[in-house]
Amino acid sequence: MAAPILQQQPSFLLANLKADCTTKPLLQRCQDLVKVINDYPAKELHVIFPWLVECVFGSLDGVIAGWNLRAISSRSHGYNIVLEFLDPSGPMMKLVYKLQAEEYKYEVSISHLPGPVKASIQEGVLPDCSLFHNKLQFAMSGLLALSILHNPFEFYMFNFAHSLLTVKCCPPGQQGSCTDSAFFVLVDTYLKYFLPTEGVVPPSPFSDSRGSVTAPSPRSLYDCKWRVFEGWCRDNGHIPFQCPVGVILSFLQDLIDRRKAFSTIKVYLAAVAACHVGFGERTASQHPLVCRFMKGARRLLPVSRPLVPPWDLAVVLEGLKGPPFEPLVGADLKHVSLKTVLLLALASAKRVSDIHALSVHPSCAQLFPGDVRMILRPNPAFVPKVVGSCSPIDLVAFAASPVRTYIDRTGGFRRSDQLFVSWANPHKGKPVTKQRLSHWVVEAIALAYTCQGLQPPVGLRAHSTRGLAASWALFRGVSVQDICAAASWSSPLTFVRFYMLDVSAPPQSVSFAGYGVHSPSLLKHHIFHQPSATADPAAQEIWRSETLLQMFVEVWLHHYSLEMYQKLQSPQVKEPFSPTEEHVMVVRLLVKHLHAFSSSLRPEQLAASPSAHSHTSPLEEFKRVVVQRFVQQKLYLFLQHCFGHWPLDASFRAVLETWLSYIQPWRYTANPQPDLSRTVPDRWGSFVEENLLMYTKLFQGFLNRAIRTDLVNAKNALMVFRVAKVFSQMNLPDMIQKGEQLFLEPEHVLHHRQPRGFMTPSQGGSFLSSRQRAVPDSVFRVKSHLYALEGQDCQYKQMFGTDLRGTILRFIQMIAQARQTAKRISDHSMEVAANTSFMSWFGLGSPDLNNTFAGCEADETGESVKKTHEFLDRALENLCQIFKLNPGQLSQIISNLGLSQDDVNYNQLPDCVQGDGGLILTDLGRMQIINGLRRFEIQYQGDPELQPIRSYENATLVRMFYRVSTLLNHRFGGHMNALCSRPDFLGRLGRHYLARPAGTTRLTKSPMMRRTLERSRHPGLSLRPLASYRTLLLILLLYLAGALVSLGPLSSTLLILAGAFLHGLLLTLLGDKLKSH
């Protein structure tokens, strides 16, 4: 009866939690969840985990909002509850670790992945990211129903990161800053926790004695071994999963009697221990009798292997340099194939199965001009022996040239995208098998010996290339971590125990006598004193840091323009992508944390040689490569997309600051330089070279945007000033210029420079080189960076070249024009402020109550314009410093504009052409309007009485006075016309009171239709000024003044009317003199 209950209990628990989700408050729900996480076993929590993640972060399709973390601010109820529950050390993460220890998997449909990733997978090409390798779950319905299997930590982080891409649902009245939201704070907390600048990542609560979460077991291998044990137990009458320890020992003894290797027996024991019920709290493999038995088995079955190379690498390489392998163009295709596969095996230290999976498909093979470099990737359908070993093979010239020749010579008859195909009939052009590829490797080694008249060694094996290549790499100074990464070894101990050879000793054909304590013991001492993956808890815990970073980068940055995506991987579909300002702010937070994390690398490790990197911890090694390996390319494409598609408004400031944060890593060091010095330390020169496009290409993109914006606007002027200030830092322009010069060096110079150093796989090199320099050549580094980001056919435009200099000079002219316009606006604003004095309340100020400068927005007056003038002044100064313009050149540029005639030009029309419907603006005319250089004399052409009611007018009085004045004008209009038409004094007096403000106007400076250029205005009475609050206040004050001198209302009214008449009479008599004055 117990089994059915155990099967139904998880669903019962899930039903209860779903019911509580709609009835209980957030605090009580979190408290209940904490109890459930602490009390229930992982088997039952596994069922509720997907629902709980969806309940918190919302569904991936955006239908369910979840807790809506992006709308919860510090002023919201439940803010602290959410942060505490989702903290890296909180209950939710405890649940994740609890499930992680049990190896559960959770599906995510590829339809929810970012558009480029989804399109790439549907094309059959896996992205170069471990998050997607060996995790595809195929369905019967085809590629569209594919899903990714994530472990609990990956599943949690994917849903958390994806919640940023869904539409934000903000309740009314809760709009606030995105940096104050619970989501933004959690991103900051996770990055600080998993990318620590001090110490290591704290271990998970469910860990073994080494401080690490239990690694997944190879279930497919264990199933095979367990079935063998089941068959043995069935033949001997035992129950496999409940048998006593004596039965297990008998089975192991039977394996020893059958001469199985000790490593094979260990696998059998691990399979039995994984499925057996165990003995109390111990597994079958931890029983004392089993442990004693395995110690004895190790003594009976010692692992023996040769400690010297089975063949001489120098002899083989010398043989490959002559006939029949050379020259490559004229050599037989068989010998070209043998040489290519052997060099590839030696340069990569890969298994034959990994080399067999390499593809020449355009998405998998990337060739660089001049055969200086080549990147080969395996077929995405390939399942490697070791998870995560599908890393690309990055070759330099000595191995890239034979591979390129082989691809060219087999291109005419190849019938498969597999790299190595058969040259012999009847299978010519078809892919070869792994066994045939192994024969090629052995045959190439043997032929290299025989062509020199030497006897090939006996017992050659293709697998020997791995140990030999890795041992030579260690001998040449490559770090152990880089060797293990390239060869797909999880621990340096694997290399030491099974593959490491003494390459300083003679090959195996020489007498073994005398081989003893010199080089091998020193090399082993060197290896065993490294922090290995099994000895250092950080090596086991760093996978969380890498997973978190890869998830954030793939979800937030893996979106870019179609042109760039087609250049790199040629997708068929493009997902429209428009990041929000909040999205960009989160990306900037990620960039700042990455720089702080990377800059926390100890200086002695930063400047150390590759051999010294073997002494670093895994976390320190991760810091060294994190920016270039994980972020650079995707962030560049993300920013390039934003530069090209973001609206031309002030919200671009978020993108701008993200860019400026990335190109200034020195701001996030532990001890940043004081801002007053504004000098970039020399040690950042390599960063500038490795990120040259981030500086030059994006600067040109910003320049193209700035030319099209209104620089009189203070926010746009501030952005120009920020960019100019950053690029004017001491040493930075020189570093950028040096990087451009390195890229522009001719290809033939590259091969005659100082020898390009020995490069580790992480630096884009191979394991074989006879050169001793440890730092890669700067020219090669810069070229590799540009080719990787822009493709092999990129047309680079120099930032300090002659082509861009013309654009810079034009931009400086625009800044000078905008600065002059800002000054004119400021002067005009001061004049208006002077006229708008206290006396203007009494009608003695300027009659134009809507007096703003033409072409100026409402917020571009006063202090804002003063800031604009200051920003543009300092931007001009910084740009002259960047591009080395002296004051004389700047004065010449400004004088060429004719700014001294600015006032004359301002009264002219913008540049237009005459069209059928009137004047049409040209591009030059639009620029003149944007920068305030010229303007149209736009005036109101309607009835002044029908203008919109102003804030300083009483709406009821305006409407009432309009009806009264309309009635009077309609009844006495003829008499008014006759009075205003008289040329004498009475006519002038009538025109003063009855004429409309604008009179009869001919608009020659406005691009309007011809039929609206003239409009007749008839004289009439206007009572609208009486509806103004200031007029009413003036009348009230006059009545109060009359009351103080004992005047009644009637007397005061007569005096006010008499005063208004005398005022008009005086203005009429002295009108001509006042106008001339």
UniProtKB/TrEMBL annotation:
GO BP annotations, alphabetical order: ceramide biosynthetic process; DNA integration; DNA recombination; glycerophospholipid catabolic process; sphingomyelin catabolic process
Segments passing through the bilayer: 1027-1047, 1053-1071
Presence of keyword RNA-binding: no
Alphabetized Pfam families for the sequence: mit_SMPDase
GO CC annotation terms, alphabetical: membrane
SUPFAM superfamilies assigned: DNA breaking-rejoining enzymes, lambda integrase-like, N-terminal domain
UniProt entry keywords in alphabetical sequence: DNA recombination, DNA-binding, Membrane, Transmembrane, Transmembrane helix
GO molecular function, one term: DNA binding
UniProt cross-references to PANTHER family, sorted A to Z: SPHINGOMYELIN PHOSPHODIESTERASE 4
Name of this protein: Sphingomyelin phosphodiesterase 4
Organism: Merluccius polli (Benguela hake)
Gene: smpd4
